[in-house]
Amino acid sequence: MIIETLSWGKLEVTEEQLYYFHKGLPGFDEETEFALIAMAETPFWYLQSIKSKGLSFLLADPFVFYPSYEFELPDEEAEELGMDNVVIVRCVITLKEQAEQSTINLLAPIVLNPIGHSGKQIVLHKAPYHTKHSLLQERPVINGRDGG
């Protein structure tokens, strides 16, 4: 399938990259179909709307930046997503002009079911996380090495 993006123009995506968000994303309720696009050899991805070429989110693997990151997915959320044993967790990145000021939202991860191709942003009400954790607070592990 060919989609239009603001950053890359026309882009071909496969069915495996497509995810359906039943209730959209907070603030974007009408946007329910997204493509998950990996940025080669980095811990980053883009979540690109299929309908709106100007709507995309920069995501990261939170475990690369915060290896101790953990949370319990509520049963009702897991059921809504049709979760089995396989889950992908990504968090939204807010880029700042000075890269060292960029943040990651650990309070509301995006949880993806790669088998059923469903996704949802989950707000962790009883977790010690915030929406703006520094990307550089813990040293990232990249390609099996300490990133510092």
Descriptive notes:
The protein has helices spanning about 60-65, 75-80; strands spanning about 1-5, 10, 20, 35-40, 45-50, 55-60, 90-95, 105, 110-115, 120, 135, 140, 145. It has about 150 residues and is mainly β. Strands 3, 4, 5, 6, 7, 8, 9, 10 and 11 form a 9-stranded antiparallel beta sheet that branches. It has a two-stranded antiparallel ribbon with strand order 1-2. It is globular and about 40 Å long. The relative contact order is 0.18. InterPro entries: Flagellar_assembly_factor_FliW (IPR003775), Flagellar_assmbl_FliW_dom_sf (IPR024046). Keywords: Bacterial flagellum biogenesis, Cell projection, Chaperone, Cilium, Cytoplasm, Flagellum, Translation regulation.
Task: Produce the secondary structure layout.
Layout: E1 2-5, E2 9-12, E3 18-20, E4 33-38, E5 44-49, E6 56-60, H1 62-65, H2 75-81, E7 88-94, E8 103-104, E9 110-113, E10 118-121, E11 133-134, E12 141-142, E13 145-146
Antiparallel strand pairs: 1-2, 3-4, 4-5, 5-6, 6-7, 7-8, 7-9, 8-11, 9-10, 12-13
Keywords: Bacterial flagellum biogenesis, Cell projection, Chaperone, Cilium, Cytoplasm, Flagellum, Translation regulation
Protein name: Flagellar assembly factor FliW
Function: Acts as an anti-CsrA protein, binds CsrA and prevents it from repressing translation of its target genes, one of which is flagellin. Binds to flagellin and participates in the assembly of the flagellum.
